[in-house]
């Protein structure tokens, strides 16, 4: 990709964007609480997301305790079990992964990586966080509401979601869940518009789109997708809320409950599924694309090699984003929709494998003959590649209609999506935190605790999810709180379930080590300096670490090269920062 | 945000022409859309997102209407008024549409006077636009009360498919909320124009940023969008 780098030595065009006026806080409250600084907002987003994520972690323990040792724990009856899986799924997908990648990493990294002082509209950015917090609180409130949280499953399919046999269906659970989602979408839109406009219209001089680090490409594409996909969820939530509260029949067919004909009639549950998955499938990539982007940068930095096929990587991200809007009905092969749809959606689904495979090849080719440093971020990045390939391959099984139909609603599906959009992105989140923590706090995370955390998490995740493929193939259904003694449930199923549960408890405990590390290293970590990984991207070139309000001091950075000048032959060091002019041009640029 | 800036010591290199030129121009540094301010870009992207919201609402409505097994109420009967003993179909909705489309005209004039820095005319035209908008919402309230009096409810109506009332109240209600927010924005901005905030560069109460007359145009973008959406709602609800 020589042409990407041909920009070196070109004239840097004059500044088009005036340096922004920043809001300067006057009190502790406006500096640290109601802060308009994207970096503070990022930390607020991240801590909130991790806090509610801990709830989801505990829920997963409870789920596994029930599945591994059915009947042992009185606390977990069938109703509670459904509430736990519902809240676990929704929290992980929306309130943890989406919020952490876009609200957390997006806010922290976008302005720094594109060389801006802040997001373009810091005030709206601040509102975005507070509305997100409100959504989280509304969601958490459902645990304390009469009847408890909803137990409809994270897909919230009607009609069962609002019927009385589903936990929370005629109580507060489903109302709070739908309201929380609506609030989340409103808050996210405020932040998302900021991220998009900052990348499109607020970059530093010389930072062309094709010089942006892949992290920014991943986050920005995911944000655009979120802005187009969340509307479908918004509409579905509003309509279901009306079905529940006003007695409309958008999604409710004529239905009898407990021998009694309900008032509903004429609505279409399939319509909800279409709306939900028009959001739900892009959502998978909203979580995956930032991970793709971040992992590309981790691999390149820690293998001291330029990313292989940068342009291809960018286009793969964009194409995956576009394609993900036309595959949603592969979640609905067994819903009773027109069978011809299955043909179309299976085709589009399998086409996505092409750009995805390109990305995997390029990661591997970046590693090929690289100077690989097995640092913690690199370990997590490598673990991501393996896990993602695993989850991706089972995706090929499930994308085909004939294979999917028997596998639908079995543990195979649970194994697939946990591998591909649960474990894989979370491994990247860990890698990214180990990578950028020094920039955020000025200190390194503890290496020994990190190694412990990594090995337990990585191997443990496989101990949990690998056996689930087998369970699914045997025919163990998902969303059953107890298996009973049907003939297909062999002894191996029971012992594997117990094994998985023990592994899940251990992996969960390892995350507590990680949290301890985050807090402990704040004060006791090794001093990191400005650029501990000797990385090229702009966020490592800030005059101070952690970067102050406004990021860059007096002068905004000027960008002369792409983000991947590692191990350039003839260069004095094995990395050249993006803001370093080509030799011989320094004097001129300093003068202008 | 598009004020003249200090010239560079070097002119930028000439860019290639044709499609390649378009691509390199779009991907060039700092801004993808030249001469588009942050505020305007943000409003356009928001409107794109909002288009998807209305699109989903309308598609849901269409799918409900096409798949219903009970007859759908006849819109020209439902939305007719008796005026002086004469039965006029769709008269109210025609007037509402006329009012809203006219308000787009006054909005466009307000934008024009805004860029000429004619404070009085700008503010007056914005107020007129807001008045049209409020009239529209008022007539919508009248229409809602008439239908409610005739027995239309979100969960049912006397003439046929229950989804008629559900989709009608939901979609016109959502659109009416948009118009109401638009009226509120118009009043706030009109006050700022009238007070001369954009000439004195007074800073915003919340954002502490200087305002520009461009905000009139950005409000206008939103307003025209709400109008355009109405045209679709009108076509799909009343004319189908």
Automatic annotation (TrEMBL), chain B:
Domain Heme-copper oxidase subunit III family profile: 43-240
InterPro entries on file: Cyt_c/ubiquinol_Oxase_su3, Cyt_c_oxidase-like_su3, Cyt_c_oxidase_su3-like_sf, Cyt_c_oxidase_su3_a-hlx
Keywords tagged on the record: Cell membrane, Membrane, Transmembrane, Transmembrane helix
Chain segments annotated as transmembrane: 41-64, 84-111, 123-142, 162-194, 215-239
Pfam families the UniProt entry points to: COX3
Compartments (UniProt record): Cell membrane
Major subcellular location class: membrane
Top-level lineage group: Bacteria
Membrane disposition: Multi-pass membrane protein
PANTHER family in the record: CYTOCHROME BO(3) UBIQUINOL OXIDASE SUBUNIT 3, CYTOCHROME C OXIDASE SUBUNIT III
Membership in a protein family: Belongs to the cytochrome c oxidase subunit 3 family.
Protein name per its UniProtKB record: Heme-copper oxidase subunit III family protein
Organism: Sinorhizobium psoraleae
Species classification: Bacteria, Pseudomonadati, Pseudomonadota, Alphaproteobacteria, Hyphomicrobiales
